[in-house]
Amino acid sequence: MSTNDILGNITAEISDFINTRIKGGQPSSKVSGVLNNLTAEASDFINNPSKLDRMLVEAEEAMRGIPKVGETLSGLPVMIAMAKSWIKKEYEVQPKVLIIMVAALLYLLKGKDIIPDKIPLLGMTDDIAILGLALKVIEPELNAYRTWRDSNDRAN
Length: 156
Description:
By secondary structure, the protein is mostly helical. The protein has one domain (about 5-155). About 70% of the residues lie in helices and about 0% in strands. It is built from seven helices and no strands. The longest helix has 21 residues, at about 5-25.
């Protein structure tokens, strides 16, 4: 399957997730455009591990600026650790999962938001929603990574 096929499938899955679990309707053209742009840009990052590693460091720094939101973002450090393990070739991650992770982090970092961050309080809600959605979609993979990481920690 080509990268474009994977990107198309991911965009369709995220749109379907939004339609069936969140909105109950069709995503707006702005949301669809943002999803398409992010998945394409995420593919570029995945093909350049050093660029991806720099972006992950930026994402960790950016997380310090987001207010604590409890369970919604509790998987974010695991997601970043999983991406770093993939970069180091320690852990295999499916391309679909990588694209979702990178797209969500790019949304956080790029500042081309559906709701501009400069709007107090409200501006962060879309960032939190996108990250929360990505974490929910890849939750089974995050759980598998936690199990792998914990077993490797015990072995060392």
